[in-house]
UniProtKB/TrEMBL annotation:
The keyword Membrane does not apply. GO terms for biological process: glutathione metabolic process. It comes from Struthio camelus australis. Its EC number is 2.5.1.18. This is Glutathione S-transferase kappa 1. Keywords: Transferase. One of its GO terms (molecular function) is glutathione peroxidase activity.
Length: 195
């Protein structure tokens, strides 16, 4: 979707939400909990990574890593970014994604969060101030609010995209629904890597 933000007539806005909260509120379960679904998902993620040209790396061992890693601190950090320096929202989100899905590195510990911030272009001072913010009531409340908003829109997992078009809201779940999104908003899908 980031690749299309300057091609389609859209105003792309990232809204941090906590996946654990969404899953709990909707009664959803991770797909990796079902053996056959997990087996399929491994193959599908490899195909999707190749198709979208994103460096996702996943093996059967990773399901345990995924289930045992809390993203709450990372999402609070992203929320603090959203509240104070939104120009870093896209790069920080991308760096967390790469660290977790491509490099199989931790995203839950303060040192890891600071490393992600440096990689996204924040100074050590900026990153430290933002890290201190993640335990503040303001950040916690904001993340709770955006998570509740996602649920109100109908989200039951992530990624969830809400398109506001012609006075209506359209929810799309998954990274493979961009062609449908384009159809709804009257824009042409030019493939995963538009030129």
């Amino acid at each position: 979707l980031c690749r299309y933000q300057h091609i389609w007539n859209i105003d792309l806005r990232f809204r941090p939400a906590y996946l654990g909260g969404i899953m709990q509120a909707t009664g959803n379960k991770p797909p990796g909990m079902l053996p056959k679904r997990a087996e399929y998902m491994l193959k599908d993620l490899k195909r999707l990574g190749k198709y979208y040209q994103v460096p996702v790396q996943l093996s059967a061992d990773d399901f345990q890593r995924i289930l045992n890693t809390s993203s709450l601190g990372a999402m609070r950090f992203i929320t603090a970014i959203d509240m104070t320096q939104p120009q870093f929202l896209e790069p920080i989100s991308r760096e967390f994604w790469i660290r977790f899905w491509s490099q199989h590195e931790d995203i839950s510990q303060p040192a890891s969060i600071l490393a992600v911030a440096r990689q996204a272009g924040l100074s050590s001072e900026q990153a430290q101030k933002l890290l201190e913010m993640i335990s503040s009531p303001a950040v916690k409340d904001r993340l709770k609010e955006t998570t509740e908003d996602a649920i109100k829109y109908g989200a039951f997992g992530m990624p969830a995209v809400v398109a506001h078009f012609n006075g209506e809201q359209h929810l799309f779940f998954g990274s493979d629904r961009l062609e449908l999104l384009g159809s709804v908003i009257g824009e042409k899908w030019l493939g995963p890597v538009p030129s």
